[in-house]
Amino acid sequence: MCVNNNMPEVRRKRLKQILYKKKILRVLEASNGLTGLIVENTKVDNKEYDAMWLSSLCDSTLKGKPDNEVIDFSSRVKTIEEIMEVTSKPIIVDGDTGGHVEHFIYNVKTLERIGVSAVIIEDKKGLKQNSLLGNKAVQILEDKEIFADKIKKGKSHLQTDDFMIIARVESFIAGKDVEDAMDRADAYVKAGADGIMIHSYKNDGQEILDFITRFKIKYVNIPLVVVPTAYNQFKEHELFDRGANIVIYANQLLRSSYKVMTMVAEQILKDECSKDVSENYCASMEEILKVIGDSSD
Ligand code: SPV
Ligand code: MG
């Protein structure tokens, strides 16, 4: 299927344009061309997704590997290009820790050049572990000045005003309090971060609400990103009304497809044929062929 309006210079600035216009954005994970098309095309009652999240968790899990920065940058760029070829919505890339600052300054330039709109990097160091593992993993925070310097250097290597570097505060993931989170957010905003993401693995979402309130009193115009995976009982408007600007649904497509794929694999073994799963759990061949289209579309 041919897609228009996806040249890098057009696409890159689209995230800032939507943020400026709407102030609140709904974002869904995209990990390959097909999930990119789902984010691009899904519409219900005039609602749709504003942008795509290229999750490190989903990207690495789909490759059968842990979410600890084992997937290298070239592979991630290849995945981004695959998504870009068939979609036009803005892309926010999960940049993990951003790696060595000497590498980060090159990587942001690459992302900017190919038309990505934003990268989010998290203030952890050492062998990065997925944040939702919480205190079941060793979560070590980077020194806030060192991380602030990474943001500053990254920003100074950009060529446009379109591309955003968003700083992800992992204080709650490392068991620290809202004071620590605010302290870090202050340092990153001062260093030039275009936005802040705050994350938590706790189910009640209380520390997230506390942070949103504190942050927005001080920084009404700095975009604030949240990822309500653990505290998924909140409706979007409850987070937006308090001051969040971007809500990312980070992994629901991956988790739902894994569940159904596992079920289907087991059922075929049980039934020794695919009639039941085809009728009950599979999209029809017509539907799948229609999603992709053909070269004449
Ligand atoms: C991801 O989707 O890779 C994220 C969000 O970084 S989380 O998995 O919740 O840490
Ligand atoms: Mg990640």
Helix-strand pattern, N to C? HHEHEEEHHEHEEEHEHEHEHEHHH
- Give the CA-CA distance, first to last residue: 5 Å
Helix content: 40-55%
Mean pLDDT, all residues: 96
Task: Kindly state the number of beta strands.
Answer: 12
Q: Please count the helical segments.
A: 13
- What is the radius of gyration? 19 Å
Biggest sheet: strands, sense, closure?
8 strands, parallel, barrel
Q: Given this structure, which CATH class of the largest domain is correct? A: Alpha Beta
Give me the CATH fold name of the largest domain: TIM Barrel
User: What is the architecture of the largest domain at the second tier of CATH?
Assistant: Alpha-Beta Barrel
Bound ligands: sulfopyruvate, magnesium ion
How are the strands of the biggest sheet laid out side by side?
A: 1-4-5-6-9-10-11-12
Number of domains: 2
What descriptive keywords fit this protein?
single chain; 297 residues; alpha/beta; TIM Barrel; 2 domains; eight-stranded parallel barrel; two-stranded antiparallel sheet; 46% helix; globular; binds sulfopyruvate; binds magnesium ion
Tell me what the structure shows:
The protein is α/β, with parallel strands linked by helices. The protein is built from 13 helices and 12 strands. The strands form 3 sheets. Strands 1-4-5-6-9-10-11-12 form an 8-stranded parallel β-barrel, surrounded by 9 helices. It has a two-stranded antiparallel ribbon with strand order 2-3. Strands 7-8 form a two-stranded antiparallel ribbon. The longest helix is centred in the C-terminal third of the chain and has 20 residues. Magnesium ion (MG) binds next to α4.
